[in-house]
Amino acid sequence: MSYPLTRNEHYDFTGEAYGAKLYPNLHPYPATMIPQLGIDILKELNITQGRMLDPYCGSGSSFIAGLEVGLDDFTGYDINPLALLICQARLTYLDMEKLESLVQKLERRIERLRASSDSLGGIEVEKFNNFDYWFSPHAGQELQWIKNTIVRMTKSSKKSEEFHEESHKESHEESEALRRFLFLPLSVTMRQCSYTRDKEFKLYRMSEDKLENFSPPVFSMFTRALRACFLTYKACYAQKIKGIQLTTNLGAYNNSSHNKNNSGYDVILTSPPYGDSRTTVAYGQFSLFANAWLLEQSQARAIDNLSLGGKRSQNKDCVAALNSSALGEVVASIANEDEARAAEVAAFYRDLKESMARWMKALKVGGKAVVVVGNRTVKGFVLPTDQFVAECMEQQNLCHEVSYQRKISRKRMPSRNSPRNLAGETAPTMMSEFIVVGSKRR
Questions:
Q1: Interval 108-132 mean pLDDT
Q2: Could you tell me if 8 and 41 are in contact, meaning their C-beta atoms sit under 8 angstroms apart?
Q3: Rounded distance, CA 367 to CA 252, Å?
Q4: Strands 416-417 and 73-78: what pairing?
Q5: Contact (Cβ atoms closer than 8 angstroms) between residue 382 and residue 417
Q6: N or C: which end of the chain has fewer CB within 10 A?
Q7: Nearest of 244, 231, 152 to residue 185 by alpha carbon
Q8: What DSSP designation does 325 have?
Q9: For 140, how many CA atoms within 13 A lie in the half-sphere containing its CB?
């Protein structure tokens, strides 16, 4: 069955930056859904209250959209600790007097250190695998000093232990929230002062000639990032998020024990990955430094393999399983040219379908599911992900309502690439997204 598709220019947001100044991100993150899209589709569907679920919440764009239209209860899942750190920092209310005092105190300590003749040579730098490949000894020492200072400044007061257990818990949670916030500009600084090539999501080391003259001012970079993060939070988030309920969970919704009794959502607004991380967006590589050094070191290098389609499959049955779907013919055409590549594509859609089957069950009767996807091209064949998602909705007792096609007006990728790696042979990259809407039947 073919599901109708409507070209909707309203959702192009031509020339608009992420958040359109209302909700700028506090930390860069790849392939984010722009909040304007979520805001306008929720308004079109007349969703102004209730509970929202995003099983691939990333840095929290869907929740920002829900916040703007009146929702105040959000649940998100993601396999990337850095994504959850950004999401939590944006949507966790912090006492502005305490935060500003902490920021100013940290800035003063950095200024005193820079004005003194104290050496950091004795500081012990915590290192993950290949740390020295990406950071100079000088940068490593200054980053470590900042991290140590943040950790010390955000420790729960021992005096709180003398009071009621609930007060101690609140004090600890506030300290953890303040630490998460300060880790954001530190994560930004890590990327800026590393040997990585500028404006790349994947990890590529800069050329040797640039390394010779690369001496980043770590403290200056951090204080700029800290001040920008604080001012953005103060101006755009602090008052709007007071009183909301945010629950975030590290891991896939499929495998989480948290979702056993977690149902009854009024709306699901989400944008799953458009393909496996190896050949589309390498979220794990982008997040490696922060995850390995600040957050979850054990999971830092596993993210891309844990993502949809991350487990490569050469099983032809995986391809055959798609025969009855909208994708079947396309994947079969890819298999005629490259069976291994077709199996990888099929593995991604197998995982996506399994994931959707689980989280679509969490919708209330009459609840809406809004899924934003892209139709990527493999071996010259366009994969109809929008049709696949609509088909999965119907299989999970949802009624497909509408699918919109929007132009991606602000892309951080070339308009053409060379999919077969042949000189002179190019093909257009993804220039459109699709908004697929379904509602839960009785």
A1: 90
A2: no
A3: 22
A4: unpaired
A5: no
A6: C
A7: 231
A8: S
A9: 18
Q: Is the dihedral of CA 362, 405, 60, 91 positive or negative?
A: negative
Handedness of CA 207, 125, 82, 233 (dihedral sign): negative
Q: What share of the chain is helix, strand, coil (3-state, %, to 5)?
A: 45, 15, 40
Q: What does the buried/exposed string (b/e) look like for 356-374 if buried means 16 or more CB atoms within 10 Å of the residue's CB?
A: bebbbebbeeebbbbbbbb
Q: Cα(171)–Cα(53) distance, rounded to whole angstroms?
A: 28
The pTM of this model reads: 0.91
The per-residue DSSP string of 78-135 comes to ES-HHHHHHHHHHHS---HHHHHHHHHHHHHHHHHHHHS----TTPPPP--TTHHHHS
Q: Do β-strands 73-78 and 245-250 pair in parallel, antiparallel, or remain unpaired?
A: parallel
Q: Express each pLDDT in 218-262 by its tens digit.
A: 999 999 999 999 999 999 999 999 999 999 999 988 765 555 556
Topology of domain 6-84+245-284+302-440 in CATH is Rossmann fold (3.40.50)
> Residue 269 is inside which H or E element, if any?
strand 265-270
The string over 34-63, giving b where at least 16 C-beta atoms fall within 10 Å of a residue's C-beta and e elsewhere, is bbbbbbbbbebbebeebbbbbbbbbbbbbb
Answer yes or no: are the C-beta atoms of 65 and 37 closer than 8 Å.
yes
| Residue 402 DSSP SS3 | strand
User: What beta strand segments (E) does 336-431 contain?
Assistant: 363-373, 377-378, 381-382, 398-407, 416-417, 427-428
3-state DSSP call for residue 6? strand
How many angstroms from the chain centroid is the CA of residue 229? 17
What six digits make up the tokens of 188?
């930004």
Q: Which residue has tokens 């089957």?
A: 357
Measured CA distances, 80 to 50, 191, 359 (Å):
26, 17, 18
**352 SS3 class:** helix
Q: Where in the chain is the domain with CATH 3.40.50.150?
A: 6-84+245-284+302-440
Overall size of the chain counted in residues? 442
User: Rounded to the nearest 10 degrees, how much is the dihedral formed by the CA atoms of 328, 329, 335, 337?
Assistant: -160
The pLDDT tens digits of the residues spanning 370-417 come to 999 999 999 999 999 999 999 999 999 999 999 999 999 764 444 444
Question: What element of type H or E holds 344?
Answer: helix 339-359
Between CA 348 and CA 356 the distance in angstroms is: 12
Place of tokens 């091209």: 377
Between the two ends of the chain, the Cα-to-Cα distance in Å is 22
